[in-house]
Amino acid sequence: MFEDLSLKLETALKKVRGQGKLTEKNISDTLREIRRVLLDADVNYKVAKEFIEKVSVKALGKKVLASISPGQLITKIINDELTQLLGGDRQELKINASGITTILVVGLQGSGKTTFSAKLAKRLKENDRKVLLVAADVYRPAAIEQLKLLGNQVDIKVFSLKEQDAVKVVKDSLIYAKDNNFDTMIIDTAGRLHVDEDMMNEVSTIKELVNPTETLFVVDSMTGQDAVNSAKAFNEKVNFDGIVLTKLDGDARGGAALSIRSVVGKPIKFSSSGEKLDAIEMFYPDRLASRILGKGDVISLVEKAQQSFNQSEAEELEEKFRKNKFDFDDFLKQIKVIKNMGSLSSLLGMIPGVSSQMKNARIDDNAFVKVEAVINSMTNQERQNPKVLNGNRRKRIARGSGTSIQDVNKLIKQFNEMKKMMSHFSKHGFGKSSLQNIKFN
């Protein structure tokens, strides 16, 4: 979502790079360009104005140290202000120390409430919580069925009733949760295509009934300033505790994400990208600020890797590289691990400097499909001993995978190059020393 914004900010900051000192003139020129970039990204104009004023005051009040360039100093100031704009410190989800933790999920229809409810339930279950999902969107049967389907995927109970009375559903779910020793309830409420009085009254009644530990407003970050306006209206009526930004993998300009915290005055607690039930992250303002400025987010990338790998697998893989026994079965396993870490575009965006090199590039999240098809068309012997892949075998694999002989040859060449490179790293200490410094969950 932020690739275009990152590239434009990078261009704007070039105006002060290479200059010996910061002056009112070069600061003014740079900030004028950055203000235009923010407005083009659909950032609220008041938010953009205040942001530029704060950066200007800090930049003009700083002495440029001999060890850093003006560009580095401006970037540092902008990074700090972006972090504050997005909320400053990370805000944890509240958990009820005694009794049931109740989480009320609200928002407009189509914002991703139901999917987020299931994602959050899965995350809390992995943290040893006994979670009950409550289908309180009684006006859309499809929403109830969707929640049940998602609940089944992660083996989480979904409570629902066959009647159009959301308040009764919630009342009965409270009794059910107590009787069955659930310690966490996530209530998926009804949404509308727009903010209306009936919707607000129902949500307010439910909130008064359950006195939730947390009320989370789910917003589609693709909808720009409309998302900010709906969040403001909800907060005035419901007074929610935190915001969830969904669809951060979309191609919108990103203005809603940058504006909503400042306009509404409530912290962003989670972000979500993609439909997979593990595509949910705690929101870290400093990490997103770093990504927007093209500095990547290595911490989040490492955390994703830690969640996908375990220590024994890493050691086994390193041993195979060192003994030159890495085969296509191992390669296939690593592809599946990478796919579980998230979309390719989101992973690449976490690597410093990659955003600027991805300009106009199409990142296909199905890029591994052809590779998997080729490997799955190999026999066990061929996967474990790629040296036997002669011309006839390659032709058969191409036919079986629906690809061309060139595709098969290209994959085998890439596999051999990667195997050689990783074997070199392992022998020269890159593998073992690096892996030992990583602590796995």
Describe this protein's structure:
With 441 residues, the chain is of the alpha/beta class. It folds into three domains: 3-85, Four Helix Bundle (Hemerythrin (Met), subunit A), CATH 1.20.120.140; 101-295, Rossmann fold; 300-436, Signal recognition particle, SRP54 subunit, M-domain (434 Repressor (Amino-terminal Domain)). The chain contains 21 helices and eight strands. It has helices spanning 3-13, 24-40, 45-60, 70-85, 113-126, 141-153, 166-179, 197-210, 225-238, 255-264, 285-292, 298-308, 311-322, 328-340, 344-348, 354-357, 367-376, 380-384, 391-401, 405-427, 430-436; strands spanning 101-106, 131-136, 157-159, 184-189, 214-220, 242-246, 268-272, 280-282. It has an eight-stranded mixed β-sheet with strand order 3-2-4-1-5-6-7-8, sandwiched between helices. Helix 13 packs across helix 20. It is flat and about 70 Å long. Residues 353-360 and 430-441 have low confidence and may be disordered.
How would you summarize the topology of this molecule?
Elements: H1 3-13, H2 24-40, H3 45-60, H4 70-85, E1 101-106, H5 113-126, E2 131-136, H6 141-153, E3 157-159, H7 166-179, E4 184-189, H8 197-210, E5 214-220, H9 225-238, E6 242-246, H10 255-264, E7 268-272, E8 280-282, H11 285-292, H12 298-308, H13 311-322, H14 328-340, H15 344-348, H16 354-357, H17 367-376, H18 380-384, H19 391-401, H20 405-427, H21 430-436
Parallel strand pairs: 1-4, 1-5, 2-3, 2-4, 5-6, 6-7
Antiparallel strand pairs: 7-8
